[in-house]
Fold this protein.
Amino acid sequence: MNLSQVEAFRAVVLSGSTTAAARVLHTSQPNVSRLISQLEKAIGLRLFQRSPGKLTPTEEGLAFFSEVHRSFVGLEQLDETAEKIRRFGAGPLRIAAVPTIALGMLPRAIKRFAREHPEIGLSIHTGHSTVISHWVDSHFCDLGIVSQLSPQNYSSEPDVLFRINSVCLMPKGHRLAKKERLTPADLEGESFISFPRHDGLRSRVDRVFDEAGVKRKLNIETPYSSITCSLVALGMGVCIVNPLAARDFRNAAVVARPFDPAVPSEAMLIVSKGRPVSGIVERFSAVMREVAREECEVLRIE
């Protein structure tokens, strides 16, 4: 039994005659008849009842066709898989992001991306910038979104997703909520919710307060901006946070105020060294840039 014989058998069943099957297969009617006869001899089954000008599948022929059909569906799926690999690369798109992005902007970008590419699987991971850099550098993830750079060497310069000034977040009704802008001196002695020491924003915030000689009560720290904002809403302290994270809590009992001197919050897209950037990574990166640009623009309007 060979593939040509099976293709001829399938074409006859689907088209109803050897003549029609020959047109489908771009061959002659006698060649189709010969292939069917060879297949019946090879597998020891009578596949068709023969009458003048017509072939009718036998019970054995219908049972055999059922298996043939499943096999051809599998082959068609392989064709589709090959096309997806050509267009988008192998496997699901693996994305890693720092918590501030992973818990807010990233899901919104994924929703937009999924509308355009519902056939693409996604694998989402979160961690601090150093861990994400390692994941990307080791090819565990295809794309990383970090808030600070690590010593790893990338295939291209990091792509700045956004750079925006942080805000001071406090509970509604806080004594400082009446002020339009805040400085380190305003937060002297305040209970302050911090990010971990390895976090880039934490380092920049600590430097500002150290240079101003201002002491805070550093009782709570967490790597997750959503937890930070929730704690602020519960009156557990104040924080300096990415305004995009604060905006996700705009309906909570919190107030955001500009902070001087400016403490930048930023994010960068990174890809691995020595690995071609696939079309789907480029497309998702473009969607992330769109969402970041739109959300930063909303902040400027507000």
Summary: The chain has ten helices and twelve strands. The domain at 167-262 is CATH 3.40.190.10 (D-Maltodextrin-Binding Protein; domain 2).
